[in-house]
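Support case: user asked for a sample of complex input and structure output to validate their parser. Sending the pair below.
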Amino acid sequence: MRNLILMFAFFAGLQMALVDPLAAQTASHTVRDDTGRDLVIPDHAKRIIALQEPMLAVPMLELGAKVVGSYGRATDGSGLLAVDFIATVLDQDGRTLGLSGVGPLGNIDLERIRALKPDLIIGGETDGDKVDMLSQIAPVYLHNVRSGDVAGFTTQRRLASVLGADQAFDALHADYQTKLDTVRDQLPFDPVGKTYLAVVIYDQINIVGHMSGVIQAIEDLGFTRADLEGDGEATGYGRGFAVPLSSELFARLNPDLLFVMNSYAGGKRDEDAIRAKLDAIVPGWERFSKPEREGRILFLDSAKVTTPTIASARHTLDAIAQWAAQN
Amino acid sequence: MIKVTTGLHGHSILRLANGLEIRVHNLVTVMVLLCLGILVGGASIMMGTTNTGMGDLIALIGGTGVSDDAVFAIMDVRLPRILLGFMAGWCVALTGAMLQSLAQNPLADPGLLGLSQGSMVMIMLMLVLFPAFPIIFMPLAGFAGGIVIAVLLLVLVGRHHTGGLGIVLMGIAIETTLSSVTSILVLYTPAEMSYALSSWLAGSLFRSDWPTVFGFAIWFAASIPAILIIGRKLRSLDLGDHMAMALGEPVHWTKPLILFVSVLLSAAATTAVGPLVFLGVMAPHLAGFVSPAKGRARLFLSAMMGGVLVIGADSLTRGISSDVALPTGLAIMIVGAPLFIISLRIRALRQSKMI
């Protein structure tokens, strides 16, 4: 009898060792993506390809997801875009992470994607035209990154849910809350009830909407968005990444804290470059802008703070803490 | 009964029993272009990230064992690309040839008259304003945009004046206006959307899957009877409106009909692969340089030249480093523009010798 029990225990152990890992590898569930498509995806995807780097690959990498390919990277994992968001936001190297490109912009290489043997491909709502092609290789989950109710960390939180990385997100968020409290204490005033506005400069000035980490951090501190003349539902103000703002109106902006940054698609993003760009678009702005005259203006690096990640929010808090220390 | 005779112009002509006449030179040129297309297509099917050779292709055709990766690369990626590229190039070049006769202007093409821009702007507006708009309905948006511009052109220049300088100038005005809309959309949409729009504007064969190929094949197939019907009418129209009318051609109906067919073919191609800029001008000129022709033969030769140019351009796109973005539209210019310039130079030299 004892031998029989031992034999059952042995085979049960063998089954645990052999069968369960296999089951874990192939375990999957059905999800509905943001375009309403139902698809079966692995519970814990191990080889993910992201079709957008700042909006999808960076949030997933911060969650510890196994991203093996990203649009806008060379075969060796080095960046092909104007900004290497993985290096800038997460301070990591795409090459050492084992990332590979999936073709240059405008020319996704299906053969290379297949060679990477992905078990999940995640794209944005603008990648709908690629679904049929990519679905031949792996399930394609389309995630709204700029439309619908996207704001702050919602993209990253929902990605965590899709990837089964809720715990990782909660841990990052808890750390972020601690940092938030620390920075709030460093401010020279109580931010609750104070107003803010954030602008990003392309070849014109734009008000930054709700979908980035920078806005999440500012509002989590307690600031509220200042009213802006001419805004309203019809203008789309408040949603999306950025909406244009008249350069005349810029000089009249007077929130308690004004955040300004250069486009990451352009050249330099430091304070001098931002000031030079403002000089070109709104000559003499320093004389008119009250936040500038009264030291209530912060210059941010758009590449660091605009991804919808906790990391970007932390970079924003760092910049605010630095400003607070100088005031 | 087939006979080869010499025409009044001194060229050999193949006369078929049903009365159809084909210049031997044109027929040979079509055959050469067909062989060139097959050769370039064959080379193109070997290019890509997956290492495949002629052996894999032969094995695939023979139905013997080929790796899944090779089957995917050849059957799902490369072959649809080649076929769609050929058909799109065919339609754009054909549209260019038809519009050049229609406008009696060698510069006319779907881009110059604003037809491509109409399709493009409509598709871009749908992408920007309604990002969740089902992709399957996007061709309809392209058609709608092209048709709106064609109707606008007809209304603005008048149905009886769809030839000569008037339609070209009006087309340029509309095209310029629409180009500014395109620029605004590219400049002022968010960066990622702007990248996506820019890459589509540069022309791309990425969306070449079998459903797209079969969907486009309908338009390709429709273009052949269109060539047969319109080609004959263009022969009369090439002589000028008055002469065409004297020959019994109802010009005020024929020209809008040709414009309508051009819009359909142009919008179908734009929707499938994006705008293939300048191909509509370049291909008919190159075809005319290699083998001067009129009517149906001119349309066939132009369309064939357009198809071959796009296959060649796509081979270039996939043959260079896989980390360098070379849009198909740009590759067409790299392949076609030198040939175009050389042909124009030789033509100029010939004319100066004649003088």
